[in-house]
Amino acid sequence: MTSRTHHASRPRCRVTPIAMAVGLALLSLSSAHAQNAPAAQPAQPPAGQPAAAPTPVAATSAKQAAGAAPTRVVVTGFRYAIEKSLDQKREANSIVEVVTAEDVGKFPDKNVADALQRVPGVVVTRSGGEGKNVSVRGLSSDLTLTQLNGNYVATAESNGDPSRSFNYMLMPSNMLSSAELYKTSEARFDEGGIGGTVILRTRRPLDVKSGSGFVNAEGTWADTTKKTDPQFSGQYAWHDESNRIGMLVGYTQQKRTTRTMGASTENWQWYADSYKTQPPVGADSKPSNLNSFWWGQSGFYDQSGKYYSKFAMPTSVNLDVRTTERERKGGQLTLQFKPLRKLNMTANYFRFDLQQNSQLNQLKVPEWNIARYDGDGNWPGGRLLDGLSFDPSGTIVTGAQYSAHPGKKYYCNSAQAGAGGLANTGGFGPDDCTVPTPQITGGYSRERALSQTADLDIEWKGTSIDATFKGGRTWAKGGPELQFGMPIKPRMQNADSSWVLGNTATSWDVSGTPSMTFAPQLMQNLRNGIGEIDLGSTSSSWTRNSTKQNYAQADLTWHADSNWLDSVQFGAKYRDGGTSRSTGNNYWACKGSTPASTTTATRTAAMRRPTSSVPNSCTGSRWAS
Prior knowledge:
Layout: H1 17-36, H2 56-65, H3 78-91, E1 96-100, H4 101-105, H5 112-116, E2 122-127, E3 130-136, E4 144-148, E5 151-152, E6 176-182, E7 196-202, E8 213-222, E9 227-239, E10 245-271, E11 300-301, E12 307-308, E13 311-340, E14 343-366, E15 385-390, E16 397-403, H6 414-419, E17 439-461, E18 465-489, E19 491-493, E20 499-501, E21 505-509, E22 515-518, H7 522-527, E23 532-533, E24 539-559, E25 567-590, H8 595-604, E26 610-614, E27 618-624
Parallel strand pairs: 4-7
Antiparallel strand pairs: 1-6, 2-3, 4-5, 6-7, 8-9, 9-10, 10-13, 11-12, 13-14, 14-17, 15-16, 16-21, 17-18, 18-23, 18-24, 19-20, 21-22, 24-25, 25-27, 26-27
C-alpha cells in the first residue's frame, strides 16, 4: 500500500516584509513584559504560623534562572605541589623523593643541585658558592647517576678532569618540570647509580597552556665584589587548539662574580729527635694518628739558641683570595606531536654552556727559614727563626716568627760557612741568609664546559600494553683553555752571587683569626723589582676532555587484569660511547753557558721547539702529549 501526499492541496502562507516586522515587534513586547513582570510571591501562611524557609533546590533554581554561572575553584600552590609529589612517591616501586617545579620556584636556586640539597639524604659539593655535585647517603658523587628525561646526559668538567659525576652547574633550575631522586635501584635503570639515581624531567608544550610562558630579569649584588651581575631567563610554549602539535622554547643566561677569601695549612708534620722514642701526641698528650714526619728527624734551634722538639707544625700557612667570573647559558627546543589519542612523539634539543675565568692571589709562608737539621749541622745559631708559639699543651705550633737581624753575619753558601769557622758546612744556601717569604704566588685559569643532547621519544598508551621508544645522542667537551701560575720570592741575586733582601721579617699566627705580618718596606721593594721568580714552581698548561654517547631503547609495560599482578615491564637498550682527554704543558729551562748545553737541557726536559724567551735568559718551550 502506498501513501502519497499531494503538496498542491496544502494551504500556503506567504511571508512578506510587513509580516516579519510585525512578528519581531510582538516578540520584543512579550520579552519586555516577561522581564518587567513582578516575581510571583509565595503564598502567605495563615495567621499565627511562621513563614516557611525556601528550600535549597528552590534557591538554586532561582539563581540559575537569574543567569548566574557556577563558580569554579582551582587549588594550586604549595599544597598542590605536595600532593603531586606524594602521588608520584606513592605510585613508585622504590624509595623516591620528588622535587616539582613549584618547589624549585619557591627558593632562589639557580641550578638543579641547589634545589636537590633540600631533599633528605642529599649532600651537595659546592664550587664558588654554587652546587656542583650531588652525593646520596654519604657515598661519593661519582656513585650518583644523573639522567635527563630517563637517559644519560654527557657532562664535561671545566677543570679538565673527566668524572662520572654530573656537573650540575651546567643546568639552570628553571628548565625543570620535576626532579626525581631514587634512593634504591630498579631493573629499568642504567647501572652506575649505587648511591642513587637522579632523573631530571623537563617541560613539554602539550602539558602546559598554549601561549603561556615567562620572562624573568634580575640582578645579583655581592658585598665582596661590589658588583651587580645580570641574569635573564625566558620560556614560551604554544600548541594548536586540538592539542596535537606543540613547541616549547626556553633560554637562560646567568652571570655571577664571586670573591672568596680563605686560610689554610699544608701537611702537618711531627718534629722530634727520635720518632721511635718520641712518637706523635695530640693536644691532650695522648698518642696521635699523625703519620707525617719531618724528614730531618730532629728538633732545631732559633737564633737565640732555644731548642724546640716534640711538636707538630705545618709545612706552610697560606692566605688566599680567589675571584671567579662565571657565565652560564642554557637553551631548550622541544617539539611535540600527538596525531592519535594514544600516540605521543617528542623531540628535544638541549644545550648547556658554562664559562668561567678565575684568578688566585696567594701568600704562602713555608718553613724554609727554620734552622739546619742535625745531619747538616744543627748549630745553635739557627737560620732566621726567632721563635715559635704553641697552644696550651705545648705540642701544637700556632705561630712562627722569622727575621734578619741587622749586623748579624749570615752564610749564603757552604764556602761562606766554612770561612766563618763552621765545621759542618753541608746544605747551606740562600734560605740561610734571606727571608724568602712570603712566597707571592698567583694563578689564572680560563675554563669552559659545553654539554648538548638531542633525542626522540615515541610513546604509545594502549589498552593493555604501553610502549616507549627512545633514541638520541649526548656529547660534551670542556677543560681549561689556559692555566698559568707563577710564584715570586722577595729577594734578588746580584752578579757577584750576593743577595738583596726584599723582606726582612715575617710572622704568622693561627691561634685566632689567621694573620700574617711582614716588614713595612716589602711592598715598595716589590715595586722596585726585587723579586725572584721560582722557576721550579712556574707552570702553564691546557687540558681538554670530551664525552659522548649514542643510545636507543625500547620499553614495554603489560598491564595485567589480575588481583595479584599489576603489570610487567620489559625492554632492551643499546649504548655506545667513550671519554677522551688531552693535555699540554709549558716548561721553563734556563739557558746553558753554550748553545749545546741549552739544547741538551731542553731535550732532557722532554721539550720540543722553543717558542718564546723571557728577560731572565730562560726559554719557554711547549710540549704536548
